Amino acid sequence: MSSMEVTKASAAVLLAGIAFLGSQLIADALVKPKLLEHVAIKIDLPEKGVPAVATAAAPEEPIAVLLASADAGRGEAGVKAQGCVSCHNFNEGGKAGVGPNLYGVIGAPHGHQEGYIYSAALKAKAGPWTFEEMNDWLRKPSAYAPGTKMSYAGLADQKKRADIIAYLRSLSHDPLPLPAAPAQAAGATPAVARVAGAAPAAGTQTAAAQAGAAPAPAPATPPAGAPPAAAPANDSVALLASASPDAGKAATARLGCVACHSLNEGGKNGLGPNLYGVVGAQQGGHAEGYAYSAALKAKGGKWDYAELDKWLLKPSAYAPGTKMSYAGITDPKVRADVISYLRSLSAEPLPLPN
User: Fold this and answer.
1) Quick one: which of 198, 192, 187, 252 has its CA closest to 66?
2) What does the pLDDT read at residue 59?
3) In this structure, are residues 352 and 240 in contact, taking their beta carbons and an 8 Å threshold?
């Protein structure tokens, strides 16, 4: 390449550079961008080293509260909308399909339909289908009984679950009594308290207080020697004098007790011990050959009326760690009837309390 050609090439490169620089200067002079004074979209990020805190889900209302306003008609529409009818039969005496017939399921044992092949996960569930158990099942079957054959994902809406439970309850000649609404727990909202019939929580102003009415006087202290106050409304022992053994016998069948316990003299133990002669007998030891839980063996006392009342109200609270998965009987009248029936299962019934 000659020196002349090298000079031409260098001149061309230099000219191109001058043209590029000149165009940039002209562009800057013509276009003057305006910067934003504020960030258009602000994303709040957690400070470095500080984990983000998830918002806690709002607690569900007790199923007893929701059932008070549940509607069986809406529940029937709900089982159709959820596709339950494609797997289950709901009429009395109906055959099982992919799932068992559901007539009379509320209050019945978990494996209530004879001839249907239940999963081992559901067979392992002791006790009957109470309102609480059915609510937990409908919320998410796979969480309630891991390994279940039920492929249904569950129903998150608690009011819709209550409607469906109300419908299932109606499928019976003798529907299970609705549970009593629980008293207001600490921190519960006044709305829940009104539905449950409980008094407002401490520190909550009532409508009367807001209107300037004088507060109700505190109950007077009874004088020395006065007769004892009446038994609490939830104490079934006070109702034993008017309790019915026949009603109690019907209740043990309706509540599913017979699925786990035999009640005849000399009857064999099942998932639970034989209950003949249980009233007045030793806790955690009256049925020979039955393997009681350590929680019940630790009680060490007798099954008197007061202890049976506490047990039937909520076994898991009476003996934490018990093998008994039954949720309990909230109605004191039903508990009194059941205790009266159990009392009758003896050659020498324990005398009734004064």
Assistant:
1) 192
2) 79
3) yes
| CA atoms of 274 and 268, how far apart (whole Å) | 6
Residue type, 353: P
Distance CA 9, CA 165 (A): 91
Written as one string, the DSSP assignment of 243-254 is --HHHHHHHHHH
Whether CATH 3.90.226.10 fits 236-344: no
Domain ranges of the chain: 63-170, 236-344
Summarised one tens digit per residue, pLDDT across range 92-136 is 989 988 899 999 999 999 988 888 999 999 889 988 999 999 999
The answer, as to whether pTM is greater than 0.70, is: no
Residues 6+ apart with CB under 8 A from 78: 160, 163, 164, 167
Whose structure tokens read 């026949």?
246
Name which residue leads in pLDDT, 285 or 246.
246
Helices (H), the chain: 3-30, 63-67, 72-81, 120-123, 131-139, 141-144, 158-170, 190-196, 207-210, 245-254, 294-297, 305-313, 315-318, 332-344
Dig out the tokens for 206 from the structure.
């009532």
Task: Name the amino acid, one letter, at 143.
Answer: A
CA distance 191 to 189: 5
Per CATH, the homologous superfamily of domain 63-170 is Cytochrome c-like domain (1.10.760.10)
List pLDDT tens digits, range 277-298.
Answer: 999 999 988 888 998 888 888 8
pLDDT surpasses 90 at 251: no
pLDDT digits (tens, 9 = 90+) for 124-176: 998 899 999 999 999 999 999 999 988 888 999 999 999 999 999 999 988 98
CA 225, 227, 232, 235 dihedral sign is: positive
Chain Cα centroid distance, residue 21? 75
Cα separation, 82 vs 308, whole angstroms: 41
What totals of helices (H) and strands (E) does the chain contain, helices first?
14, 0
Do residues 335 and 314 make contact, with C-beta atoms less than 8 angstroms apart? no
